[in-house]
Specification:
By secondary structure, the chain is of the alpha+beta class. It has 3 domains: about 25-150 and about 155-225, Immunoglobulin-like (Sandwich); about 230-325, Neutral Protease, domain 2 (Orthogonal Bundle); about 330-455, Neutral Protease Domain 2 (Neutral Protease, domain 2). It has 9 helices and 23 strands. It has helices at about 5-25, 260-275, 310-320, 335-355, 360-370, 390-410, 410-425, 430-445, 450-455, and strands spanning about 30, 50-60, 65-75, 80-85, 90-95, 100, 105, 110-115, 125-135, 150, 155-160, 180-190, 195, 200-205, 210-220, 230, 235-240, 245-250, 285-290, 295-300, 305, 330, 430. Strands 6-5-9-3-2-12-15-14 form an 8-stranded mixed β-sheet, with no helix packed on it. Helix 5 (about 360-370) packs across helix 6 (about 390-410).
Length: about 475
């Protein structure tokens, strides 16, 4: 076959254009080791967007050893020569990128992976990490002075990872701004149950082990993932409105809870769906484990994890988080009041719903109980700083802010705002400025002074 002069010219022009595009493409560079969150600068990773985690973990309670394999599917957001993952203290034995062996190095909790060939911007890729060891719970002033993360129990493990402990048990981009879907497979000794997020795909027993496979098909922040293992009495069904429900309770706690966890979970899920908008996940439920040392409960996506159930109010708080924190997640940790202030305010709304006390009276009781000289008023709920991000002020000043907002703009606008917020940012991330803009748009009012006073100014505000 021969080409005419015009055809040859066209081929040459196309080749020249392709050469120019190649020459103009940025050279591959390493992804950033963190996203730059002011509270946790090294958490999360730059250069890629996490899309899906396939976690395969095997746990031996007698030795405490975890053996895992994580396959992360991601999309490159720049031309990547290398990229980082977060993994704390566990030993890596192998890393593969797109099925080929890749080099990796460690620097503390940062794992730098260098694929055989650079990854082009926009390209999907997979990285598979094989690892193992004995996970260590974290501790310190952040979470009420309690241990958190991967915590051993008498018969297994209680896994509750906010804010930075997901990477104690699987390699990840460990920041809520990088959400993904999940498949979580858990191998545990026969007689124990592995409970995780989303819906149960399968369960089987073989060779003295129990295998469970869970799937969370809605985007989820890493800290909300769990692989809690133990002996559980499981009850399943549907809420009155039809949402599937799965409640697992350690039999040691049988008859020791002062509240019917299953009934309250079902009722609160349905009520919040009326107030906050449709329930955002495929299943609701609870994991109630005998772990009093944890000293807290966590809004694990689809199944809040309770170290012990202390009250009905605790359950409604954690379930409100399914909308505020889980479906709509913070863009940075400084905006944590968007999680905790909203869930605390939900407790006030629940009391109002029950007819025991109005949210206005809950506000006054809380406000009046705090002396002007209290350290409570020294913390700015809208930017509380790392070591006090879970301080009482974040929860209660956040709730007070919402009640002041409700009284400023009126019930009609306020109860239009809440479902509008969860709808606008469903399965995504948002910050305080986003909320203020939406509140101003719905109310038609300028509200900067209100938020500045209650979130960003120290001292007890005058009423």
């Amino acid at each position: 076959m021969t080409l005419s002069r015009s055809a040859r010219a066209g081929v040459l022009a196309t080749a020249a254009a392709s050469f120019l595009l190649i020459a103009a493409a940025p050279a591959p560079t390493p992804g950033a080791p963190g996203i730059g969150d002011p509270y946790f600068p090294d958490l999360g990773n730059g250069g890629f967007d996490a899309l899906h985690y396939d976690l395969d973990v095997a746990y031996a309670p007698d030795t405490g050893r975890l053996d895992g394999r994580t396959t992360l599917t991601a999309r490159a957001t720049q031309n990547l020569s290398s990229f980082d993952l977060d993994l704390q203290r566990l030993e890596i034995t192998q890393v593969q990128v797109n099925g080929e062996q890749a080099q990796f190095t460690r620097d503390g909790d940062e794992v730098t992976v260098t694929p055989r060939a650079p990854l082009a911007k926009g390209r999907r890729f997979t990285v598979r990490v094989t690892y193992g060891g004995v996970p260590e719970a974290l501790s310190g002033p952040i979470v009420f002075g309690s241990e958190y993360g991967w915590m051993k129990t008498p018969d297994g493990v209680f896994v509750a990872c906010e804010p930075n402990a997901a990477s104690t048990w699987f390699p990840s981009s460990d920041h809520p701004s990088d959400k993904a879907t999940y498949d979580i497979r858990i191998k545990a000794p026969e007689g124990l149950t592995g409970v995780s997020n989303g819906v149960l795909v399968s369960t089987r027993e073989a060779g003295g082990s129990t295998y469970t496979h869970w799937r969370e098909s809605r985007p989820m922040a890493t800290y909300l993932a769990t692989a809690t293992i133990g002996k559980f009495d499981v009850r399943t069904g549907r809420t009155p409105a039809g949402t599937p429900i799965y409640v697992a309770i350690d039999p040691v706690l049988k008859n020791s809870n002062s509240v019917d966890v299953y009934a309250v979970t079902a009722e609160a899920t349905d009520y919040w769906a009326q107030v906050f908008g449709p329930y955002p996940f495929e299943e609701t439920g609870a994991i109630v484990d005998d772990m009093p040392e944890a000293g807290f409960s966590l809004e694990v996506q689809s199944k809040p994890a309770y170290s012990a159930v202390r009250s009905e109010s605790t359950i409604v708080h954690e379930l409100a988080h399914q909308w505020f924190g889980d479906s709509v997640s913070v863009a940075q940790w400084k905006d944590i009041w968007l999680n905790e202030g909203f869930a605390t305010y939900a407790q006030w709304l629940w009391a109002e719903h029950r007819g025991t006390r109005t949210a206005h009276d809950s506000f006054l009781a809380d406000y009046d109980s705090r002396a002007a000289t209290s350290s409570f008023w020294k913390i700015k709920a809208g930017d509380p700083q790392r070591d006090t991000m879970f301080a009482d002020a974040v929860y209660h000043r956040g709730a007070m802010t919402l009640q002041m907002l409700r009284e400023r703009i009126g019930d009609k606008a306020f109860f239009k705002l809440l479902p509008a917020w969860t709808r606008l940012h469903r399965y995504g991330n948002a910050d305080t400025a986003d909320f203020i803009r939406l509140a101003e748009r719905i109310s038609g009012q300028q509200l900067g002074d209100l938020f500045d006073t209650w979130l960003f100014t120290t001292g007890k505000p005058a009423l």
